[in-house]
């Protein structure tokens, strides 16, 4: 997450719809070339109200269409909703090939940039050049200044408004029923859209499922479980156990050291090769560890990174941390949008009792959960009341990684209780987002072709666990 806001974190009442009008002619859109995919795609821009409760200001929602390969395509496309909140559909275009290539054989793939992200009026705060040496107080102050300078009506950037935008995109493209794929926060948005417009949803595929009652900042329990699993896996693998025999002790020592004072080192700037100072605070350390756990390939580098840092060699750890900066394809998160959504929908439910239940024994700690709330006054959004969710009747395929540190299988199981026909598949060697792995692309196609039939998913057990990195040469062969 390259934005200043995310770097500093290192970490509803339904509105009445306007009267129905005759459906407009479908938009043809324009040919477009976007980063992340070589071929020409089709792009459209759909005007929507900034506030669905009143007329006046509008904004433009961007959608990217990857047309089906076959001319006789099915009429029900797959709408793709990205995560975050703060990630745009145009940020995850590589998934068109990596995860949706089978589905695209017969269906259009439509990737939507949520309002406030990507090409839909992105709310963005760039990281300052001196970010590596700034204190946490300076980072927080810089974030507040940026949020206020944008002058956005942050209260209009809710999940409910984003769901209504999806409906405008569906109408603009002239589709009838659609299928939805949501990843991470996108699963919350997909569920909300389905509950608002149930007749328009044919089927859902939800990957990294956020349960309706999940509070995004309260992730200590799930994060610690993923870290413990990584430690246990290293201890059970002979080569990893020999290379890092004191892994838990070294991790605890680093956390204790950083709790007393940040670590300060000099390292070569990856852009200029000039030596520059770098500060590693406890907040940056724990947030980097958390993000590493999202991917199993990355998680299996963690013992090496911890051991190296404990020995005073911080460079590998910092290099991994910088993958969330402007050197990364994942660096396009819209930080202010994240705050607008989470401060309105999640922080009001982050009660002292929930923090007390979620954080004991977790490396994230209570401070990580509650620090976000200190930035909420800057976006100045009203609380969105939590309403008991209605049952979803459309068939749903829920996908989970057993080692996911943010939306583990227990979250999907909670969401499935509110669905009439849900199938839940777990990838035992998967982390956060498993759609591109192994046979998952084929299973998604099979489900969408016949969503009321059971999916035979034993092939997911064949997805191997990555090997551990033991030294600077990289993972084992």
UniProtKB/TrEMBL annotation:
Residues 77-209 form the AB hydrolase-1 domain. SUPFAM superfamilies: alpha/beta-Hydrolases (SSF53474). Residues 363-452 form the Peptidase S33 tripeptidyl aminopeptidase-like C-terminal domain. This is Alpha/beta hydrolase. GO terms for molecular function: peptidase activity. Belongs to the peptidase S33 family. Transmembrane segments: none annotated. One of its GO terms (biological process) is proteolysis. The keyword Signal applies. It holds the Pfam family Abhydrolase_4. Keywords: Hydrolase, Signal. InterPro entries: AB_hydrolase_1, AB_hydrolase_fold, Pept_S33_TAP-like_C, Peptidase_S33, Serine_prot/Carboxylest_S33. Residues 1-22 form the signal peptide.
């Amino acid at each position: 997450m390259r934005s200043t806001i995310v770097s500093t974190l290192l970490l509803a009442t339904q509105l009445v719809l306007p009267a129905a009008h005759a459906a407009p002619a479908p938009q043809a859109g324009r040919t477009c070339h976007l980063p992340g995919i070589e071929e020409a795609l089709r792009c459209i821009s759909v005007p929507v109200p900034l506030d669905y409760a009143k007329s006046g200001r509008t904004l433009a929602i961007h959608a990217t269409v990857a047309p089906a390969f076959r001319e006789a395509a099915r009429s029900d496309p797959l709408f793709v909703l990205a995560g975050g909140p703060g990630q745009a559909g145009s940020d995850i275009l590589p998934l068109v090939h990596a995860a949706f290539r089978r589905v695209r054989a017969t269906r259009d793939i439509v990737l939507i940039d949520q309002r406030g992200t990507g090409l839909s009026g992105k709310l963005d705060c760039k990281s300052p050049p001196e970010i590596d040496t700034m204190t946490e107080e300076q980072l927080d102050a810089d974030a507040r200044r940026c949020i206020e300078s944008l002058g956005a009506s942050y209260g209009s950037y809710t999940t409910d408004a984003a769901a209504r935008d999806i409906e405008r995109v569906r109408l603009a493209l002239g589709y009838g029923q659609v299928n939805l794929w949501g990843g991470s926060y996108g699963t919350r948005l997909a569920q909300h859209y389905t509950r608002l417009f149930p007749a328009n949803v044919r089927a859902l595929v939800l990957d990294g499922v956020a349960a309706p009652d999940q509070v995004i900042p309260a992730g200590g329990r799930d994060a610690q479980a993923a870290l413990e699993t990584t430690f246990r896996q290293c201890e059970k693998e002979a080569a990893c156990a020999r290379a890092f025999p004191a892994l838990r002790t070294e991790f605890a020592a680093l956390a204790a050291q950083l709790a007393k004072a940040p670590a300060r080192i000099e390292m070569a700037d990856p852009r200029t090769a000039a030596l520059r100072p770098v500060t590693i605070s406890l907040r940056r350390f724990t947030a980097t560890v958390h993000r590493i756990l999202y991917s199993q390939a990355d998680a299996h580098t963690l013992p090496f990174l911890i051991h190296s840092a404990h020995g005073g060699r911080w460079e590998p750890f910092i290099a991994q941390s910088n993958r969330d900066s402007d050197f990364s394809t994942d660096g396009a998160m819209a930080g202010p949008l994240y705050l607008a959504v989470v401060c309105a929908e999640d922080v009001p439910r982050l009660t002292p009792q929930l923090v007390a239940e979620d954080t004991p024994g977790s490396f994230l700690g209570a401070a990580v959960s509650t620090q976000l709330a200190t930035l909420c006054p800057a976006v100045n959004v009203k609380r969105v009341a939590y309403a008991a969710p209605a049952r979803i009747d459309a068939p749903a395929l829920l996908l989970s990684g057993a080692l996911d540190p943010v939306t583990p299988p227990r979250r999907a199981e909670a969401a499935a209780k509110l669905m009439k026909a849900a199938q839940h598949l777990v990838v035992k060697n998967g982390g956060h987002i498993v759609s591109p792995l192994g046979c998952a692309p084929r299973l998604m196609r099979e489900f969408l072709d016949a969503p009321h039939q059971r999916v035979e998913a034993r092939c997911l057990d064949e997805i191997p666990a990555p090997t551990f990195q033991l030294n600077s040469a990289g993972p084992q062969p």
